[in-house]
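Data card: per-record layout.
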Amino acid sequence: MTVREILKMGDPRLLRVAKPVEQFDTPEMRELIADMFETMKDANGAGLAAPQIGVDLQLVIYGYDNNPRYPDAPPVPRTVLINPVITPLGDTEVDGWEGCLSVPGLRGVVPRWERIRYTGFDEHGQPIDREADGFHARVVQHECDHLIGRLYPTRMRDFTQFGFTSVLFPDMDPNADD
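The structure for this 178-residue chain is written out next.
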């Protein structure tokens, strides 16, 4: 397993639309997924998308039991999600604070669908079909945005609620949002 470099906002590779995965459970895919989990863990991330490490594939990972970057968030199941499709369940959106490993040190309030259904495949090519709400739904939507070349600041509606984590949340561990 290797910790990969996480691309930062401004890198044009983050703006590309990722390609669908066509082959599952290959040695290369297993290595990529292992590297992504190692990279996410090293960065205290809640999730990571393949484009964030320069790989143009529709692959996201997420999940944790507890996370220092989101200390009040409930656990999210560890998941490998390939070729995802998100469907909102209802019209309700909720605002919530988000950060991103590709936008280090900053946080902003982002509207997201409150409840979603997401489908796709796991690393073995087995179908995934789940419903999620709350922070789980937020994480899935955030990570899947990377697959269409979007970073969370482009979803924000109020830039008065955007700034440095150290200023907005002075009591947060300063190493939690690198």
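Known properties of this structure: The longest strand covers residues 76-88. The first helix runs from residue 27 to 42.

See the next section for split statistics.
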